[in-house]
Amino acid sequence: MNNPQAAQPQADAIIIVTNLVKQFGRFAALRGVSASFAPARLYGILGDNGAGKTTMLRMLAGLVTPTRGTVTILGSSDPRKICREFGYMAHPSLLYDEMSGMENLRYFAHLYGLREDKRCAEIIVSVGLDPELARPVGQYSQGMRQRMSLARALLNDPKILLLDEPFSNVDIRSAREMVKLLGHMRDGGKTIFVVTHQASLLDGTANEFIWMDAGQILNRTPDLKFMETA
Amino acid sequence: MSGPPGVTFETLKKDIRLEWRSKDAINSMLFFALLVVVVFSFSFDPNAEESRLIAGGLVWVAFLFAAVVALNQTWARELRNQVLDAYRVSPAPANSLFLAKAIGNFIFVTVLEALMVPLFVVFYKLRVLGPAWQLVPVAVLGTWAIVVNGTFFAAMSLRTRSREIMLPLLLFPITIPALISTVEATTTILVGDPTTSAKFWIVLLATYDVMFTIACLALFETVLHAE
User: What is the pLDDT along chain B (227 residues), one digit of tens a residue?
Assistant: First the structure.
């Protein structure tokens, strides 16, 4: 059941989704999701496997088109027009294994018209990695790869960050550092969506938790207490 | 270089770097083309005159089959780690990606041709009797015809389950007019018959290339963003 409050568009909403439906053949990944999201907030998207979390995130990124319904981001319903405003981190790394972290970021920076190595190096340092590391990404540990993937998503200094499982296979200390970094970025004005199964990591940092089940938003809560009753 | 040409250049540079490090495409292409040359040379034992008549067909069939190997590799590396999604969410134009891939494949197939032609000459005792310089536009236009369509159809078959089979199924029928033109032009030049000219086939090939390049560029964005 959708939370009625979630369907009410907020006056200052940065993202509004209305009656989103996504069918993959006969399987409905999203079943009429309506919600609005305010700027400069960190949202944790939670739910079991198959709840529709990743589909929802990919839809916000413009990688999946809705079967029905609309997505409006920063007042535009055309994802191509606002693609400079968001950063997307998927479950896979979205990096070339044969190239070093710096080479990867240099290439992706060009896609955004950024040509400064300094920017790439700064971003790599901000996620706790060494820009001088010549080793190809394929030889990175899973945690390093996740952090480099986050660096790629941050490259264009986006207003909206869409992160799918950023803490998977990351050790607890690095994951906490990532959460701290995300908190700082939220305080700096970014709107952040984090799809995760490790909800407790976001407790105290996320402004709101969005609970999804069977392609619908079940509830929106400011903390994780709902987990105990669900 | 900035803007769409800059993205094309950077993507091309990245692809050449990846190929240089992995050598996935060039090794498989070379091995495959070498096999074709050797197997054909054992299967037929033509004299010099017969060689000139069949070599055009043999050479281009070998290049077409070998190119398919490179064409499949082009997009396969974009599927690993879903890197293509990073391009799709960026503001970079779809056609910059397409052109970079097509030019990259053109370079790889040209390298293969440069290495294989001397082998064909030796194995089939070839000597050009017509205007040899005309082989250059034939090779350039023929190769572009293969790679431009191949790059497009390889992208189209990306999300199909058996994409390695899908590519030749889609590519070969559409390449037939270009293949006929290329083979006819090559044979005409090799034979050096004064009553015929390769110019007609070269013009036909150029027209084919222009038409299909425009069609591929017009349709690629739809293919890239298809689910």
Answer: 668 889 999 999 999 999 999 888 888 888 888 888 888 888 877 776 777 788 888 899 999 999 998 898 888 889 989 999 999 999 999 999 999 999 999 999 999 999 999 988 888 888 888 888 999 999 999 999 999 999 999 999 887 878 788 889 999 999 999 999 999 999 999 888 888 888 999 999 999 999 999 999 999 999 998 87
Q: Taking a C-beta distance cutoff of 8 angstroms, is the pair A42, A194 a contact?
A: yes
Q: Could you give the dihedral angle defined by the CA atoms of residues B70, B74, B75 and B78, in that order, rounded to the nearest 10 degrees?
A: 140
Tell me the longest C-alpha to C-alpha distance in chain A.
52
Helix (H, G, I), strand (E, B) or coil at B136: helix
Q: Which residue of A has its CA nearest to B77?
A: A96
Q: Does B6 touch chain A (CB under 8 A)?
A: yes
Answer for the pair B128, B190: CB distance below 8 angstroms, yes or no.
Answer: yes
Q: Where are the beta strands (DSSP E) in chain A?
A: 15-24, 27-37, 42-47, 68-73, 86-89, 160-164, 191-195, 208-213, 216-221
Amino acid at B23: K
Alpha-carbon separation of residue B16 from A73, B106, B154 (angstroms): 37, 11, 18
A86 has a chain B CB within 8 A of its CB:
yes
Q: In which domain, by residue range, is A133 found?
A: 4-229
Q: Among A83, A92, A115, whose Cβ lies nearest the Cβ of B82?
A: A92
> How many domains are there within chain A?
1
CATH number of domain containing A115:
3.40.50.300
Binary contact (A98, B21; C-beta < 8 A):
yes
pLDDT tens readout for residues B60-73: 999 999 999 889 88
Cβ contact B14–A107 (<8 Å): yes
Q: Which helix (H) or strand (E) holds A24?
A: strand A15-24
Residue B19 CA to chain centroid, in angstroms?
A: 16
Indicate yes or no: CB of B80 within 8 angstroms of CB of A107. Answer: no
CB-CB under 8 Å, B89 with A99: no
- Mutate one of B17, B89, B222, B225 to test the A interface: name it (highest A CB count within 10 A): B89
